[in-house]
Amino acid sequence: MSTQNYPKIYLYKRIVEAKLFIDKHYADNIDINAIAGEACFSKYHFLRLFKQTYHVTPHQYLTTVRIQKARELLQNGTSVTETCFNLGFESMSSFNKLFKRRLKITPSAYAAFQRRLHTDIVNHPLKHIPVCFIEYMHWDK
C-alpha cells in the first residue's frame, strides 16, 4: 500500500466501521452524535463522508436497515406491535407511517399478505415454482 493512499483508506475504514455500528445497534436509540463518535469524526464531517461513500445519510441508512428488519420479523410471524418496539421506533404511528411510506403498504397488511403467501406455498407448492425452472427441468412435457 502506498503512503499516498493510506489516509483515504484509513478514513474509509472508519466510515465502514460506523456503518457496521449502525448494523449492530439499529434497534437502539442511536443518533448522529453517537455514530460520528464511533467513527471519531465531528458530526458534520462524518455526515459528509458517509453520504459521499454510501449515497445516503446515516439516518436514511438506519431507517432502511430498520425497515428491512421489520419485513423479516413480520414475515416470520412477529406481531406489528412487537416488531415496532423491537426495532427501536418511538411509537406505533411513526412506525406505521414510515413503513407505509417506504413499502406502500401498512405493516399489518404486509404481515397478513405474508401469512396468506406462506399458507398458499404450504398448500400449493408447485404453484410457486418459476415457469423457467419447470421448463428447464422438462416438467412441462
List the helices and strands and how they pair.
Elements: H1 6-25, H2 32-39, H3 43-54, H4 58-75, H5 80-86, H6 92-103, H7 107-123, H8 131-136
Number of beta-strand segments: 0
Largest beta sheet, briefly? none
Q: Given the structure, what is the number of helices?
A: 8
Strand share of the residues?
Answer: under 5%
| Overall residue-averaged pLDDT value | 88
Query: What is the terminal separation in angstroms?
Result: 58 Å
- Helix content class: over 70%
Unreliable segments of 5+ consecutive residues? none
Structural class: mainly alpha
Task: Describe what this molecule looks like in 3D.
The longest helix has 20 residues, at 6-25. It is built from eight helices and no strands. Helix 1 (6-25) packs across helix 2 and helix 4 (58-75) crosses helix 7 (107-123). With 141 residues, it is an all-alpha fold. The termini are far apart. It is flat and about 65 Å long. Helices cover 71% and strands 0% of the residues.
In short:
This protein has helices spanning 6-25, 32-39, 43-54, 58-75, 80-86, 92-103, 107-123, 131-136.
Give the tags.
8 helices; 71% helix; mainly alpha
